[in-house]
Design the sequence.
């Protein structure tokens, strides 16, 4: 009886492991393909010879990309935008989510409706631009950070997480005389590591990939971010622009980026942010680990 | 090795940082510098510039680099350049305009956009400014009357532009494998039937000699549809004159012949059976560069496709193919209109600024443009038989190439025979330069038919066309790929039915009125 | 006093919408005095909470609500030269134009259908994946797999689309190669109006499912380990543990994500659609975002596109409110 059971548990685990492994190979492929392409010759890519491994291996694409000093400047800018942006986001989201998770708060329903409304009714590009201009934020990174201080989506996720924490915790703390700020800082936040990690990741990825806002508000080349630089290389020619009925710049005006360089630009833009999650992941397993060590 | 790389990276970083700091300092101290006193007399104007991300850190930025400095030293005005990202240029310009932040001079390649700006009241008519203040551009415009209709909106002059060089007038192009023609004993096709015949032979007679039926007659990129259509004198979104009446290309009688032609190509397997999903021409390029296709419908200038094919098959000999004749005659392939960049004046510009802008433009069309296109003589180029030859392509790309669009007006027009002198010296580049010269000659040999210089600027018409085109695309796909489902004639009938349903009759009436009102200015 | 407040809490739990009970009470003259002191006491008790909300409310007012006044151009003929305020009022003209155009309803239908497929088939996948991941006991394996699963989230649709199209190619694609080897005729998936929505949905799942596991895993990390211990003592199998502990543990997250997903029912990603769409499938593949893209390309037609945007928002808002209501009637915590 016992051995049968452990046998079925083993098959169960094996199937699970295998299925996950297979799926992850599927999802890795696009990146793998781009990485292989970035070390191949553009000729081999166009000729459809690259599939799993680089063909005509070379590192010219990376050399060309890294030769441009602007890329390093923009990478630094992106790190700054991402780190500061994420910190501001997390601070504001906690400030919003914690009080709103308290059922006892007067006016809570109204406030939540007030906030939900902005999640769906989004204002257009032009009024936003005028606002940023009026505040004098053009060409300052505050033009990116301030309008995006809170993602309402993330706010609701965090609020619902706080609501899921056992109520006895802060009840007992408030009996001990701690005020709400102290409860939040000393008790709630340490308990919320998984969600803090997850939302930091969401925010950071958003900042890392932010593109359109940067185009709109940051005109100074020295403040440009990595994504804008790389996008310029990847999407240099938009077919729809070339074929506008009203006249176009002509085939020879636009510089076509070789395939290998596009691939290298993609690899360079994706790799750093892919590496963030593994660091955050350890905050995910704390709770589970205690209970499942003996698995 | 690795350490060295890291070192170079560090040096580059340091360089970039110090440059950025220098740039910042320069800007601040510039205000009090005595050199500024002289410049202060010059009026200041702002001009948009496409940011294509081509200015390296070493060169500075789009706002400030060797060429902007050069312009400010030499032009009659101090220019502040406002970068606009190329990918989102119209959105960004619109936003700037709406926020009252737009530069004095706003420019685009797209006339439709300029006409939108005019109807939105974002730019102002400039007849009087040109009249009063211009000498060089006034003379230039007189020498090039063909520009006039494009620059005029509702009877008023709204933009200035110079004439395109022929290398940007020419646009679409067809390429054919001469070596395959020779091998199969075919002559260069000159009619649509001969083209079909060549495509059939390319498919069936094993031109690559590998004993397998794995070749295609024709491959094409996004231009291909329009190429096939223009052979029959029907650009799908263009209006044509028929007995003094304007008729929309996509519902003209001859459009059925286009559909029939495309259908034949598809049914006989002369084109890729999956062309519908090959929107970025990945497969087309692959077939062509691996020597599996005999004809490529694309652009007149296709350096990458050419050299990749040559690398895969050194014996390949692609040459430009002149448009073939259809029962309706011989049309040219799509060419651009005469004007290059349309430069317009912001509505907020006062007389004084407008004067400065006109003088700046005068200077640009006179002599300002030359170094911006070619660089400095004997530094970036030298004259070989009167042709500018780039001395060091690497240096040119780094220091000059990005400057081409600062020359919003220019008289640059390379001749086909310049290409071999301008090109790099390696054999493939030289061979391509010759093929490219021929291709440009071929592309300019036949004029592309355009009965009216541009489409009517009517919101109703634009709305109809944008609603009609996805429906039309579906019908066309059904005709071409659907076998017996729908004949070309039935397809055309269906197109007309949909056109009418979406309000085509009314739009045709409006368009006709528009034409009757404006035709005098279109000649 | 305390008891009364508790009572209110219970009311709102059972789905009574009168959240703002205190405010409502203020309308009864006799109750006013009593609630006045309650009001003050609650205010002073929660002063830190309100303090925290000050910057938050300020943010929403300045950066969300202030620019929203620009939406009035939906009721105007916006021209650059006249500005937002100076432009002519035209009432519901743009809405009429929108609803009267016969193709709008087709586009709306396509948008909703793709979203429904995405919801029905796409929503459960991250949950299943995270349950599977949660069962993995080898920590390194779990982490690696999870990292690999979300990689496509970072790759743009242009590239993913290209790969999908070539995988599904009838002549050279792997999928059809497998079909052929099983004696099935190749299928041109991308050009078939029947298959295209399936492919579209699968491609969304492929890109986003791994990324979607993050929140569920975060929720699972907070389930009390003692629960599992106790269940094991009782001899509950793995599946029973999932059913009785893990799933209830992430139910709140599921509910909230489902409600939030409702807000996007009127949106279909532009880039994804442009990349996957082709002329053979426009009948099912033409959606609101591609429509706006086409219209927006010309004429700076801001009034029209704003009107469309408002319509989308309104429907999304209604969907969010209704689903929130439904979820709460199941006894789950909703948005509020």
Sequence:
């Amino acid at each position: 009886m016992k051995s049968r059971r452990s046998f079925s548990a083993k098959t169960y685990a094996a199937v699970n492991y295998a299925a996950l492994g297979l799926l992850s190979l599927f999802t890795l492929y696009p990146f793998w393909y781009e990485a292989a392409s970035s070390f191949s010759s553009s000729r081999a890519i166009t000729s459809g010879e690259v599939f799993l491994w680089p063909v005509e291996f070379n590192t010219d694409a990376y050399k060309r990309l890294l030769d441009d000093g602007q890329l390093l400047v923009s990478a630094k800018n992106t790190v700054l935008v991402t780190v500061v942006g994420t910190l501001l986001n997390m601070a504001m989201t906690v400030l919003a989510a914690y009080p709103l998770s308290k059922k006892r708060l007067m006016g809570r329903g109204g406030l939540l409706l007030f906030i939900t409304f902005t999640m769906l009714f989004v204002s257009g590009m032009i009024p936003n631009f005028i606002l940023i201009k009026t505040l004098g934020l053009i060409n300052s990174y505050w033009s990116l950070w301030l309008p995006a201080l809170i993602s309402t989506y993330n706010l609701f996720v965090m609020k619902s997480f706080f609501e899921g924490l056992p109520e006895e915790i802060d009840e007992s703390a408030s009996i001990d005389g701690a005020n709400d700020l102290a409860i939040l800082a000393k008790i709630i936040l340490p308990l919320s590591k998984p969600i803090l990690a997850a939302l930091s990741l969401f925010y950071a990825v958003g900042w890392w990939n932010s593109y359109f806002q940067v185009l709109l508000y940051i005109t100074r080349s020295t403040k440009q971010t990595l994504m804008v630089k790389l996008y310029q290389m990847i999407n240099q020619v938009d077919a729809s622009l070339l074929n506008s009925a009203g006249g176009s710049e002509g085939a020879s005006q636009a510089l076509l980026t070789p395939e290998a360089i596009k691939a290298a630009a993609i690899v360079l833009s994706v790799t750093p942010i892919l590496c963030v999650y593994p660091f955050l992941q350890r905050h995910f397993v704390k709770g589970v680990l205690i209970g499942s060590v003996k698995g | 090795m690795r350490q060295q790389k890291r070192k170079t990276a560090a040096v580059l970083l340091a360089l970039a940082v110090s440059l950025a700091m220098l740039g910042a300092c320069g800007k601040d101290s510039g205000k009090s510098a005595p050199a500024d006193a002289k410049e202060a007399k010059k009026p200041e104007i702002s001009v948009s510039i496409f940011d294509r991300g081509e200015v390296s850190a070493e060169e500075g930025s789009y706002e400030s680099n060797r060429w902007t400095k050069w312009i400010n030293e030499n032009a009659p005005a101090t220019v502040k350049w406002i970068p606009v990202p190329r990918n989102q240029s119209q959105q960004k310009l619109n936003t700037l305009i709406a926020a009252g932040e737009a530069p004095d001079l706003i420019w685009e390649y797209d006339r439709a956009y300029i006409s939108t700006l005019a109807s939105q009241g974002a730019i102002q008519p400039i007849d009087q400014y040109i009249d009063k203040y211009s000498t060089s551009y006034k003379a230039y415009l007189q020498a090039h009357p063909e520009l006039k209709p494009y620059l005029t909106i509702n009877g008023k002059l709204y933009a200035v532009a110079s004439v395109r060089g022929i290398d940007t007038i020419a646009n679409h192009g067809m390429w054919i494998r001469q070596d395959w023609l020779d091998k199969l004993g075919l002559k260069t096709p000159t009619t649509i039937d001969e083209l079909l015949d060549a495509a059939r032979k390319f498919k069936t007679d094993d031109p690559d000699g590998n004993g397998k039926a794995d070749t295609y007659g024709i491959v094409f990129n996004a231009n291909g549809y329009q190429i096939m259509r223009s052979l029959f004198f029907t650009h799908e979104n263009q209006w044509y004159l028929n007995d003094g009446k304007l008729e929309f290309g996509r519902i003209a009688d001859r459009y059925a012949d286009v559909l029939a032609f495309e259908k034949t190509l598809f049914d006989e397997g002369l084109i890729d059976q999956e062309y519908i999903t090959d929107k970025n021409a990945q497969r087309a390029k692959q077939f062509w560069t691996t020597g599996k296709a005999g004809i490529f419908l694309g652009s007149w200038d296709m350096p990458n496709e050419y050299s990749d094919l040559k690398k895969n098959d050194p014996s390949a000999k692609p040459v430009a193919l002149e448009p073939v004749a259809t029962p309706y005659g011989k049309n040219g392939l799509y060419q651009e209109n005469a004007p290059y960049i349309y430069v317009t004046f912001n509505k907020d510009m006062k007389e004084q600024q407008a004067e400065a802008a006109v003088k700046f433009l005068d200077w640009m069309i006179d002599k300002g443009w030359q170094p911006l296109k070619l660089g400095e003589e004997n530094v970036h180029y030298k004259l070989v038989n009167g042709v500018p030859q780039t001395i060091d392509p690497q240096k040119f790309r780094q220091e000059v190439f990005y400057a081409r669009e600062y020359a919003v007006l220019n008289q640059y027009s390379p001749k086909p025979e310049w290409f071999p002198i301008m090109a790099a010296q390696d054999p493939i580049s030289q061979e391509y330069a010759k093929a490219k010269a021929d291709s440009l000659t071929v592309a300019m040999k036949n004029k592309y038919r355009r009965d009216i210089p541009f489409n009517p600027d009517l919101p109703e018409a634009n709305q109809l066309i944008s609603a009609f085109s996805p429906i039309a695309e579906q019908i066309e796909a059904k005709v071409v790929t659907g076998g017996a489902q729908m004949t070309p004639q039935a397809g055309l009938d269906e197109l007309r039915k949909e056109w009418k349903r979406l309000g085509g009759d009314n739009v045709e009436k409006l368009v006709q009125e528009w034409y009757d009102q404006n035709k005098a200015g279109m000649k | 006093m305390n008891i009364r407040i508790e009572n209110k809490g219970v009311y709102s739990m059972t789905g009574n919408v009168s959240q703002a009970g205190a405010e409502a009470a203020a309308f009864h003259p006799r109750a006013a005095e009593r609630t006045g002191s309650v009001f003050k006491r609650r205010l002073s008790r929660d002063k830190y909470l309100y303090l925290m909300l000050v910057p938050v409310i300020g943010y929403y007012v300045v950066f969300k609500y202030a620019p929203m006044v620009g939406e009035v151009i939906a009721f105007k003929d916006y021209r650059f030269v006249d500005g937002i305020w100076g432009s002519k009022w035209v009432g519901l003209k743009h809405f009429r134009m929108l609803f009267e155009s016969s193709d709008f309803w087709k586009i709306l239908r396509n948008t909703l259908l793709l979203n429904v497929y995405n919801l029905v088939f796409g929503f459960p996948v991250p949950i299943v994946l995270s349950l599977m991941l949660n069962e993995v006991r080898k920590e390194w394996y779990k982490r690696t797999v999870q990292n690999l699963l979300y990689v496509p989230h970072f790759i743009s649709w242009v590239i993913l689309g290209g790969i999908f199209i070539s995988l599904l190619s009838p002549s050279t694609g792997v999928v059809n190669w497998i079909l052929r080897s099983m004696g099935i005729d190749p299928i041109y998936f991308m050009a078939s109006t029947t298959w295209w929505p399936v492919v579209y949905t699968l491609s969304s799942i492929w890109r986003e499912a791994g990324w979607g596991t993050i929140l569920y895993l975060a929720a699972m990390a907070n389930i009390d380990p003692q629960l599992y211990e106790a269940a094991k003592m009782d001899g509950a199998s793995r599946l029973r543990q999932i059913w009785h502990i893990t799933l209830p543990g992430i139910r709140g997250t599921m509910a909230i994500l489902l409600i939030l997903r409702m807000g996007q029912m009127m949106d279909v990603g532009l880039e994804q659609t442009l990349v996957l769409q082709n002329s053979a499938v426009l009948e099912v593949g033409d959606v609101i975002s591609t429509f706006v893209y086409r219209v927006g390309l010309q004429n700076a037609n801001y009034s029209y596109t704003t009107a469309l945007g408002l319509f989308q928002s309104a429907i999304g808002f209604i969907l969010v409110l209704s689903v929130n209501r439904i979820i709460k009637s199941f006894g789950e915590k909703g948005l509020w």
Q: What stands out?
A: The two ends of chain B are 66 Å apart (CA to CA). Residues 276 and 477 of chain B are 8 Å apart (CA to CA).
